[in-house]
Amino acid sequence: MNSDTCATWAGAKPGSVDQWAYDVVVVGGGVAGMTVALSLDSKLKIALIVKNNGTQSSTYKAQGGIAAAVGPDDNPSLHLADTLRVGQGLCRPEAVEVLTQEGPAAIEFLQSHGTEFNSLESGLDLTREAGHSRNRVVHYYDYSGRQVSETLARLLPERTNIDKIDDCFLVDILISNGECYGCVFLHAGKPVMVRAKAVVLATGGYAGLFARSSNSSTTVGDGIAAAYRAGAVIADMEFVQFHPTTFTTLAGEVFLLTEALRGEGAFLLNSAGERFMTGYHPDGELAPRDEVSRAIIQEMKSGNGTVYLDARHIGKESLSQRFRQVYAKLAEDNYYLERDLIPVAPAAHYSIGGILTDIWGKTTVPYLYACGESAATGVHGANRLASNSLLEGVVFGRRVAKVINDDFPARGDCLELPAAICSKGNSSKGIAIFGEILDDFAGAIRNGEEISWLLYYMKQAPLAGEINNDKVQECQAYNIAQMTELILEAALARNESRGTHFRIDFPEKNDADFKKHTIQQKGKKVSLR
User: Which of 268, 289, 357, 487 stands 20 to 30 A from 307 (CA)?
Assistant: First the structure.
């Protein structure tokens, strides 16, 4: 790193903006970002920029596991068929083929880097989750993501070519002549400009925008917002997957109860103590997540009561050993899986939309790449197959690294700085209200008239203004408002119901007009193609 001064940026005093130089900047400390960094050529100087310290990432919080066709009764073609079926006509088949064909190699990659998974004498202990026709979910008890995250993070200090820099907030992408040359972020209260030959966005999704979410409240799509401002095409922003079974602790925390519980035999009861899922879907509790979430909401409304997860018949020994994290968390609030019915409700969990990429992670902006939840690779279509998310991060993270390694760009530096982007007009208090409105009007069940009203309301406070360089909160508020508008605009454009997107005013699927992807780009109207 160096600290040479550069030109004034958005009101900053001359000399107050640090300049650093790297070959590659990877933004994001989850499985996708770490996979890229660890897979890049050791001759390249890499900055791994992390928003906090990595423990708030969706990877770290992931419970269930990683889907891959590694069982004796399984193969990638079956995994592909399940993924396409759940994606309801919007998956990109070539991307799904990459994901499923390279899935076993992704598991081997993680194991070769020290990741342990639960095993039996016959091999890996595989479980089943919703939408799968086989037991193919590789896991480590019920904190698989944490196991992967901590294992990969331990390797980073050993790589002398990687600088992991915590507590950084991505502000903007450096663009010159339509090409990416680096990024700007806030670190220790100061703006920093990082010049790079390639930038990889692995910044996660935007499910944290919703007031009720299994994600960290900081998971709000900062990388997607920055890419959009840089001119990159984004896609399918209306598709947000809600996890059916989350528990609200006494402290108000929304805690996910892994789908593997239902895979191991737990079922759902309404307020009358009746099982109801088979009345909504032939797969019952293992129906796709969007179906289960809407069924729970319907039961809560029609029965004027709570829906419960019932795992009492499984037994304490199995529950406390297989689901260690969930069991301990519930016990803190005096709930015990072998004794009690657990009240559950859906929460925003995973964002399918993001920065449009090809199957090598290339965005529409040269030298800007994306992978993981921030990317719209097309593998998930209109609804993500359970446990395909961590797999996507590894598979496409490795592909991004390969394409950079194979064709590392030899380019000069740009001298331009980005325009100011953050608004002083959007307070954090106002943004919290947006989260609550998203829950009500753009959640698992939506209404076009309400979405139109909300968009009108938001546009009364335009996103214009000057950045305050040392205020991450204002930048975050700007991104949240911008991302919320993009989601609502996409949801309003899709006048049908498909996968995670359900409109009560257009409750049917319409293949004739909407078997297309929602496309958004700065300065252009939303389109479907």
Answer: 487
* Chain CA centroid to CA 464, Å: 27
The Cα 24–Cα 196 span in angstroms is 5
Rounded to whole angstroms, the Cα distance separating 57 from 137 reads 21
For residues 427 and 418, the answer to whether their CB atoms sit within 8 Å is no
The yes or no reply on domain 22-237+352-406 and CATH 3.40.50.300 is no
Across the strands, what pairs with 162? 46
Instruction: Write out pLDDT tens, residues 7-64.
Output: 333 444 445 568 889 999 999 999 999 999 999 999 999 999 998 766 667 787 777 7
| Catalytic member of 262, 289, 384, 399 | 289
The Cα–Cα gap between 199 and 414 comes to 14
Q: Which two tokens stand for residue 387?
A: 């446990």
Structure tokens at 34: 């770490």
Tokens 């670190």 — which residue?
A: 187
**Domain residue spans of the chain:** 22-237+352-406, 241-349
Other CB atoms within 10 Å distance of the CB of residue 522: 12
DSSP structure string for 417-453: -PPP---SS--HHHHHHHHHHHHHHBSSSB-HHHHHH
Q: Summarize pLDDT for 486-502 with one digit per residue, the tens.
A: 999 999 999 999 999 99
Residue 10: the pLDDT is 40
Q: How far is CA 134 from the centre of its chain?
A: 24
Nearest to 390 by CA among 184, 125, 109: 109
Pick among 3.30.360.10, 3.40.50.1980, 3.40.50.300, 3.90.700.10: CATH of 241-349? 3.90.700.10
pLDDT along the chain (529 residues), means of 10: 31 61 95 97 96 74 88 96 96 98 97 94 88 92 88 95 93 91 87 92 95 88 95 97 93 89 92 93 89 92 87 91 90 95 94 97 98 97 94 97 91 57 45 72 91 83 48 81 92 97 96 97 95
How many CA atoms, within 13 angstroms, populate the side-chain half-sphere of residue 223? 33
Spatial distance between the Cα atoms of 277 and 295, rounded to a whole number of angstroms: 7
DSSP 261-275: HHHTT-EEE-TTS-B
- Tokens read off for 129: 């989750």
- Please enumerate in sequence order all residues whose Cβ is within 8 A of that of 426, keeping only pairs 6 or more positions apart, or say none: 461, 463, 474, 477, 478, 480, 481
